[in-house]
Amino acid sequence: MSTIKKRKVGNREYYYVEHSFKAGKKVKVVSRYIGKKVPYNIEEIKDDIEHEAMKLTIFDRLKGIKAKYQKEQGKLPKSEREKMTEDFLVHFIYDSSKIEGSSLSLNDTKGLFLHNITPKNRPVKDVREAEGYREAFYSMLNFKGRLSFEIIKKWHAMMFRNTTDYIAGKIRVHKIIVTGSRAVFPHPEDVQKLLKGFFNWYNKEEKKLNPVELAALAHLKFVSIHPFSDGNGRISRLLANYILKKHGYPLFNIKFGDRIAYYKSLETSQVHYKPKYFVRYFLKSYMKANS
For 14-24, what is the mean pLDDT? Predict the structure, then answer.
């Protein structure tokens, strides 16, 4: 819990917010000067400091998660690693597609990918997009180059070329309104400029940020640009996993059952222009998935 501290220097008083927390075996303190008076937005400042402390605590634990994951992967034969990847793929595509309204059940997805059984009484569009998503997923896993919009467009094209080829891999030229969301998405004329800014940010921050935080921020920033007519959420979740994979961390599946908390954190960050809400959700959910 954060506390307000008053320090006196001569005849003047200065206020600080301090928050102590445990990182590993050490107790650390985050301190921020807030002025000669306690500001009106003190609760927001406290929340910011507690968020920074939470990140530092989690970053310390993430080192252990990465080390354990790489050690376990190193012990497994290639065939077992492939089975684990296939199992993750089934759940990831089921959940990520279901979040966006797909009619495919988990059993449908298992039958389609593990036994080549096309589900009956399901829209062909849902089946074809799931198959395209699988192709994009494996392309993401095997991609060794520098992240660019060209490769992201390629993944998007894989998803949609067998259903709505007129949007596959193409930047939208129309406005976007997401039903039920308070978020406002960029005008189509601004998308190119925002994408350029996104990749400039990514290239600058990739080596500075913790990779899991980077994955969360990349997801948030990309989906907030909403460059495509459809599939922005699915591509953003794929993008987050590309970053995790590249930096040697376990992949992450945001489950359909967690969609309310997921959407709430996204919308809150988008409406208030504060990434911390989605980053907090992503980090805590990632830790829970790997505990």
Answer: 83
